[in-house]
Amino acid sequence: MSDKIIIFDTTLRDGEQSPGFSMNLQEKLEFAFQLKRLGVDVIEAGFPISSPGDFESVKAIAQQVDGPQICGLARAMDKDIDRCWEAVQHSKNPRIHTFIATSPIHVEKKLKKTQQEVREIAVNAVKRAKQYTDNVEFSTEDAARTGRDYICEVVEAVIDAGATTVNIPDTVGYSNPWEYGALIEYIFEKVPNVGQAIISVHCHNDLGLAVANSLAAARMGARQIECTINGIGERAGNASLEEVVMNIKTRRNFFPFHTDVNTEQIYPASRLLTRFTGISVQPNKAIVGANAFAHEAGIHQDGVLKERTTYEIMSPQSVGRSGNSMVLGKHSGRHAFVSRMKELGFALDDAALEKAFAAFKNLADLKKIIFDEDLLVIVDEQSRASDYARYNLEDIFIRIGQDKKPSASIRLRVDGDILEGSGTGDGALDAAFSVIKNLTNMEDAVLVDYHVGAVTRGTDALASVNITISAGGREAIGRGADTDVIRASIKAFINAINHCCFENGQVKPTEV
Ligand code: KIV
Ligand code: ZN
């Protein structure tokens, strides 16, 4: 058996489908390019039949991201499989991933079928997918709560039908390493044709054991692990890619296998996801949390200064972190800026680097210390200011007072023209958003979600705002950052309006 573990990343499918983690097409594409740099083997790019947006993003990733296999999810239904193929066929290396639940509770209560019927549906789904591609994955949803012998029956039948990967999910995060490892071992013992397919695992984290269960399964012969960056996913999330990969790398003697992941791209991938979703990982999160490599206790600091390995089992550099959280300031030069950008994993061309450096200098005038988080926001802001932005903010004037109705005057640049307007509202943002809606002819836009966070600490910190608006029956996300929270909110609102225009086909995206 090969000692390579196939890393199947499902951040853009299982991760993105969980509430609060949505990304737009451009962001998904950019994230898929980062997954390529990270060296994952398979990118599950989405669930094409679930929405036109999901279909378009799977198709765009399949068309543009070469290297990893590009996979789409499909229920065990003809229409799902056909739609999935329509999207993934554009990849040089496409995969169809089809699934049906096998546990008694799902079979009886959700599907209202017999086990025999479910097995037939599974076999037919694999055969249908096989008409399109040789690369077919089948998942027995809720496998961890399915009887072992029935699982083996289904696994054998779908392999006979042509499945090249068979996934055994712990859909509800119910299992533990001993039980789950034993299930995988049992499948290897009892399924006669098991050698003709890769056995894969997909663990949810409801009891906090997703990574442990995945690793236990790999020790029993599973050779594909499905996981997500930052462990995002349904409910408590999926197995975290960074934890799976770094366990394998750090404990080679215990886990006698390897992955092809370029671990120095782990931190950039984690940061990119945080930027796109606006949701940070907890500070003590293994590998990518703010404190994961911080030594606070004096005795630990003393030990690390004498010999790093006294308290560090991995180096921060091995996962793409610099090891120092405070890096640049007003007096830092271009050279320090460029090398820090490289360390953070940004491959900017000269023009983009020049713009980012100018933005850094402006920010350094407002803020004493520039943290890595600030640099990530600067790059993000630059990419938002790229030429697919139809509306650009020229100026804002806001008035608020104790007894006055808040008012806003806004100036926007659009296609070489200047649009100006003023209005009042219940608050400064209400006034500003109404003016912008009026100027952009987007009166039907409704604010659905609004989150504001401080990028770092201190009253001079950058504010980062994430907004979701709904307009013309579609939702669009917008983000903005600024040292002023009102400006950050207005930038985010305009960004969301620009995304609506982009999705309505009014403007063309720039190349990623
Ligand atoms: O958790 C699960 O069972 C899934 C399947 C669709 C693989 O996400
Ligand atoms: Zn799942």
UniProtKB/TrEMBL annotation:
Catalytically driven reaction(s):
3-methyl-2-oxobutanoate + acetyl-CoA + H2O = (2S)-2-isopropylmalate + CoA + H(+)
Provide the E.C. number(s) assigned to this enzyme. 2.3.3.13
Which Pfam families does the entry mention?
HCS_D2, HMGL-like, LeuA_dimer
Q: Which cofactor does it need?
A: Mn(2+)
The protein's UniProt keywords, in alphabetical order, are: Amino-acid biosynthesis, Branched-chain amino acid biosynthesis, Cytoplasm, Leucine biosynthesis, Manganese, Metal-binding, Transferase
Q: Which PROSITE patterns match?
A: AIPM_HOMOCIT_SYNTH_1, AIPM_HOMOCIT_SYNTH_2, PYR_CT
What are the binding positions for Mn(2+) in this chain?
A: 14, 202, 204, 238
Renumbered to this chain, the signal peptide range is none
A single GO CC term for this protein reads:
cytoplasm
Q: What class of enzyme is it?
A: transferase
> Which Gene Ontology BP annotations are present?
L-leucine biosynthetic process
SMART domains in the record: LeuA_dimer (SM00917)
Which GO-annotated molecular functions does the record name?
Answer: 2-isopropylmalate synthase activity; acetyl-CoA C-acetyltransferase activity; manganese ion binding
Pyruvate carboxyltransferase domain residues: 5-267
Of which family is this protein a member?
Belongs to the alpha-IPM synthase/homocitrate synthase family. LeuA type 1 subfamily.
Function according to Swiss-Prot or TrEMBL: Catalyzes the condensation of the acetyl group of acetyl-CoA with 3-methyl-2-oxobutanoate (2-ketoisovalerate) to form 3-carboxy-3-hydroxy-4-methylpentanoate (2-isopropylmalate).
HAMAP family for this protein: LeuA_type1
Q: What name has this protein been given in UniProt?
A: 2-isopropylmalate synthase
Originating species = Candidatus Falkowbacteria bacterium RIFOXYA2_FULL_47_9
